[in-house]
Records
---
Amino acid sequence: MQIAIPLFPRFTALDAIGPYEVLQRIPEFDVTFVGHARGEVRSDNGMLGITVDASFEEHERPDVIVFPGGVGTRLLQDDARVLQWLRNAHPTTRYTTSVCTGSLVLGAAGLLRGLTATTHWSCYRLLEAHGARPTTERVVEHLGHRIVTSAGVSSGIDMALRLVELLVDRTAAEAAQLMIEYDPQPPFDSGSLAKSRAEVQARVAEYARHRQ
C-alpha cells in the first residue's frame, strides 16, 4: 500500500507527522514524503525541516494521498503542477485525504466541488470558494467519492486512524492507536471555536499575525 504525504515550504508539521505516526505503524503500508523536488523543506515557522524523498512525478499513482495543510497551501492553490498531480492521481487512489488547509488544495484541484468538507476553522470561506460546503465536523467522509477531509492539525490523527480501519480493519486501527498511546486527556477544553472564550480567540489572532 503506497501512501504519499506531500510536503511543501511552510507546511504545518503535525498535519503531516500526525498521520505519518499512525500509518507507518502498519507493516503493509509504505509511507513516502513527496514534493516538488527531493530534499529538505521547512515547516511554517521555519524551525523544522523534513526531507522529501520523491518528486510528485515519481509517485504518480499512490494508493492513498494525505495532503497536509499550512500557510504554504495558499500558493499551492495556484500551483499547476501540484493540481495536475492530484487530478491525475485521484482516479486511481483508494482514498484522497487532507488535513487542515490541505483541503484547499484538493478544492483547487476540483475534487471537492458540491461536497461537504472541512478545514481549519479560520479558513471555511476559502474552502467554500472552491465549491465545497464547509462543515465543523472533525472528519468528513465521502467514501463513494473516495474523499476524506479532516479539520485543523490534530484532527489528522483521528482521520488516519479511520483510514487504517477502512484499509485494514478496526483491530489494526485500535492497535495503531495503542502503539502511539493516543488517549487524549487535555487539561483544557478549548479545542474548538465553539468552546473557546473571546479572550482565547483574541490571543490566537495575535499569535497568527506573527506567523504571516
---
Amino acid sequence: MKKQIRLLGIDDGPFTFGQQTSIVIGVVMRGGAYLECILCNTITIDGTDATEICLDMIQHSRYKKQLKAILLDGATLGGFNVIDINTIYEKTQIPIITLTRDKPNFTKIEDVLKKHFVDWKDRLTLIKKGTLHKILTKHNPVYIKINGLSISEAEDIIKLSTIRGVIPEPLRIAHLIASGITQGESYGKA
C-alpha cells in the first residue's frame, strides 16, 4: 500500500444538550503526514441526517476520486445521529472504516435509545449492523467496522495513518479542528 494514499477522516464537534446542531469536520490527508483539505458541515443533534451530510461532504470534495478510504469516529455523529456506512459505500464506492477506542456496549446503547427515541429499534439495528473487529495496535486495541475492504487492508490503513497513539491522523486532526471551533481551543482525545 502506498504511503501517500488519500484518506478522509470525519468527526463531529462537542455539543451541549439543548443545541440543535453540531459541526462536522472532514480532513483529507495523504497517509498520516500531509494535510490537503478541510471540509465542514453541520448535522442535527440526535437527528437522522448524518448519512446524507457525510455523503454531501464526500460527493462535493474535489478529492473524491482520489480517496482510498473514509475514516469515521464511530457509527454516530451529534449524539445518536447514526451513519449508515453501507449506504455511503454503495453510493461512493469508497471503502469505509468506523473506529472507536472502546468496545461498544450495545446493552447500554439500547437502554439509552429506548428512553429517548421512538425509532430506537431502527437506530440500534443500524448501529449493530456489520461485524465489529478488534484491531491490536502498539498501545491499545481499537474496534472497527468496515465496508469495501478486508480486515488486513483496514489494519494497513490504520497503521499507515497513525503517527502516535491509536487514532489515525485524519480523525485526530478532524477532532482537533471541530473541538477548537466549537470550544475556542481544541481538547480531549479523538
---
Amino acid sequence: MGSTHEAMKRLELARRKHPGRNRAGMTLVEVIVGVGVLAITTLSLYAGFAFGFAEIRLMQENARATQILMERMELVRLLNWDQVVNLPGYVPKNFTAPFYADNPANPPTNVLIYTGTVLITNAPVAETYSNDLRMIQIEVSWLSGKVIRRRQMTTFVSQYGMQRYIY
C-alpha cells in the first residue's frame, strides 16, 4: 500500500506544479475564432480560383478573336485589286465564327459566337496615290458574360501591291 500512497502523492504534486494540464480542451471562443479563420481562408481560396478561371476564359476568347481576325486578314491578302475594289460583295461585309473552330459549319448550341464586319474604305491619306490605296478594317465582337468585347485589325491594300509581282 505504501507504493500506491507514494504514487498518489507524486500525482498531486504534479497537479500543483502544472495546474492547467488536466484542462487540455479548447474554449468555445477559440473554436469560433478558428472556424472563422478557416471560413475566410476557404472563401478567399474559392474567390482566387474563380477569378483565375474567369481570366483564363477571357484569354481564350481573346486568342480566338485574334485567330479569326488573322484568318480574315490572310484572305484579304490573297485578293487582287479588282476583287477588293471593282467587285462589290466579293468580300462579305458581315460574318460569324464559333468559339470552337473544329466544326464551324455546325456549331453546338449555346456556344460563344463571334460576329464580324469588314469595312473597305479609301485610305486616309492626301498623297497623289490615294486613289490606288484602300484601307480594310476587320472587327470582331462577342458577348463575354454580360460584357460586349471587340477586337479590330486594319490593313492597307494597294493597286500596285504584291499581287502584281505574281503575274
